[in-house]
């Protein structure tokens, strides 16, 4: 419409001149304008692409909270004898420092906040791609391990790696999957993320001085006290609820165990403590725990179940019903290390002796 109006206006101004000449002149003017506009838009593109690369590269070598474990994985810096996988209940509950000191091993915790088994397994596969396989893998199993989410947990953790095919596969198919613009438009993914953008720049040019990473080998103790969220939950939900369990996820878990068996990796299932009252608010908690018990028998792998441990009755060791605080996690890690030493580490695992 605008083009037609432009042509008509030019025809009026240049009446008396053949219309074909006027029309050709107007078309050339519009094309010239469009070309200038295109050049104006593309001119900063090389700069934006370069800046996007710098921010990505900076975050990929930073010790930022979101990227420390990912960077260690991709840079082949872990190579653990004993690897820990799971959700937040893995990286908040199990201290590699304590396991290393008691068991004399090199352990590392790659637990993922708010994740379920399919995401955890994808990260485990990435670990194996860039690091040597572990001798043991502690699988922190939960009531929600197979309750797969429709949301990517903490999408910010993936931003510098969106051009990685494995990360793309991990983050596709969710309700909040990354858009085309986030994946391919320079810097668009860092929109409204000025702190990450600045951290990336500073890390790239070595302007960040980090005394100590906030996590130690993927673990961080929560220096928190009981927050009363469970008490509020009980009032709002007096009846128990049933957790969704994905059969697809359970089947993938069995494939994971078979993979470990074939590759001489010894899996150890650990159900870390939950506050004792919380179990009765999950109507199918016994069913889920029995699944792990049956898997332990079927695959002849250890299951260390702390669902009824004395720790679970001590509110002072928790900051909510599902998570231990720093004191609780250190007490538990000592207990776990001793149990591993007695039951697993110093004894052969028949299921994996070929």
Question: Your description of this structure?
Answer:
The chain has about 350 residues and is α/β, with parallel strands linked by helices. It has 2 domains: about 1-40; about 50-350, Rossmann fold (3-Layer(aba) Sandwich). The N and C termini lie far apart (about 75 Å). The chain is built from 14 helices and 7 strands. The model is unreliable at about 350-354 (pLDDT under 50). Helix 1 (about 1-15) packs across helix 2 (about 20-40), helix 3 crosses helix 10 and helix 6 (about 95-105) runs parallel beside helix 14. The strands form 2 sheets. Strands 2-1-3-4-5 form a 5-stranded parallel sheet, sandwiched between helices. The chain has a two-stranded antiparallel ribbon with strand order 6-7.
Low-pLDDT stretches are 348-354
Strand content: 5-15%
Give me the count of strands: 7
Total domain modules:
2
CATH superfamily of the largest domain: SGNH hydrolase
Helix content: 40-55%
Could you say what the CATH topology of the largest domain is called? Rossmann fold
List the helices and strands and how they pair.
Blueprint: H1 2-13, H2 19-42, H3 45-59, H4 68-74, E1 82-85, H5 88-91, H6 96-103, E2 107-109, H7 117-130, E3 136-140, H8 165-170, H9 180-184, H10 194-204, H11 229-236, H12 247-262, E4 266-271, H13 285-299, E5 303-305, E6 318-320, E7 323-324, H14 326-345
Parallel strand pairs: 1-2, 1-3, 3-4, 4-5
Antiparallel strand pairs: 6-7
């Amino acid at each position: 419409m605008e083009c037609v109006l432009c042509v008509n206006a030019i025809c009026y101004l240049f009446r008396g001149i053949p219309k074909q000449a006027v029309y050709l002149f107007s078309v050339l003017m519009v094309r010239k304008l469009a070309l200038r506009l295109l050049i104006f838009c593309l001119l900063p593109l090389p700069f934006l692409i370069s800046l996007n690369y710098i921010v990505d590269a900076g975050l990929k070598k930073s010790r930022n909270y979101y990227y420390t474990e990912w960077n260690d994985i991709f840079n082949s810096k872990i190579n653990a004898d004993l690897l820990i996988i799971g959700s937040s209940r893995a990286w908040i509950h199990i201290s590699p420092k304590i396991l290393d000191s008691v068991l004399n091993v090199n352990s590392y915790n790659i637990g993922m906040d708010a994740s379920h088994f399919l995401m955890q397994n994808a990260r485990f596969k990435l670990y194996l791609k860039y690091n040597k396989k572990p001798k043991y893998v502690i699988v922190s199993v939960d009531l929600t391990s197979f309750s797969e989410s429709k949301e990517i947990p903490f999408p910010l953790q993936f931003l510098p790696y969106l051009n990685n095919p494995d990360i793309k596969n991990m983050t596709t198919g969710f309700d909040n999957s990354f858009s085309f613009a986030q994946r391919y438009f320079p810097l668009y993914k860092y929109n409204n993320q000025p702190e990450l953008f600045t951290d990336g720049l500073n890390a790239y040019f070595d302007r960040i001085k980090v005394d100590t990473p906030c996590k130690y080998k993927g673990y961080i103790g929560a220096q928190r006290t009981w927050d009363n969220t469970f008490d509020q939950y009980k009032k709002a939900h007096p009846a128990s609820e049933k957790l969704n369990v994905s059969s697809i996820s359970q089947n993938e878990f069995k494939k994971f165990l078979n993979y470990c068996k074939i590759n001489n990796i010894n899996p150890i299932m650990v159900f870390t403590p939950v506050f004792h009252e919380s179990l009765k608010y999950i109507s199918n908690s016994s069913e889920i725990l029995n699944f792990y018990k049956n898997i332990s028998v079927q695959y002849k792998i250890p299951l260390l179940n702390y669902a009824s441990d004395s720790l679970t009755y001590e509110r002072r060791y928790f900051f909510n019903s599902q998570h231990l605080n720093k004191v609780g996690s250190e007490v538990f890690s000592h207990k776990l290390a001793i149990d591993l030493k007695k039951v697993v580490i110093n004894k052969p695992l028949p299921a994996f002796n070929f």
